[in-house]
Amino acid sequence: MLPVSDPVAIVTDGACGIGRELARGLADRGFAVVIVYLRDPERAEAAVEQILASGGTAVSVRADVTDEVDVERLFYETDAAFGAVDVIGHTAVRGANLVYRFAARKLRRGGAILSLAGSEPMLPDVEAGLRDQEITVNGMPPGVAPPGAGHDGGGLLALLDQWRTGG
């Protein structure tokens, strides 16, 4: 974990549900947030507006996280808007392989991957591949949350807080 002055996060499926709560929590912690959506631009813009209204920084990007060209474009657009990515919150049900593969090349040294969804079995392999870059990889199966975290993105935010404080 390295301190970053202007941290940047990508949240897949960040327009609704746990992804939206995670995006909002990241923005509350000072991150510029890229909300990734596939089908509902109005919902994505509403999530962006919610963050902007509370003083945060956010944009939305339409990307299919199962499409390599879209994932590459997502990282390119994020870098163009805010700079290097520090955290990836992967809450989409699919697309983990591509997102993690690009994360290995694009995530800032000392960054973090926070994963929900069904990708937990692959996380040890992902973590081993990113160890040299000091990237922390944390996962939480759907429906599991640390005590008191609830089921609204708080579990992933608790993992993020541990990463940021080194605890």
From TrEMBL:
Transmembrane segments: none annotated. InterPro entries: NAD(P)-bd_dom_sf, SDR_fam. GO terms for molecular function: oxidoreductase activity. It comes from the Bacteria. Keywords: Oxidoreductase. Belongs to the short-chain dehydrogenases/reductases (SDR) family. This is SDR family NAD(P)-dependent oxidoreductase. It comes from Solirubrobacter ginsenosidimutans.
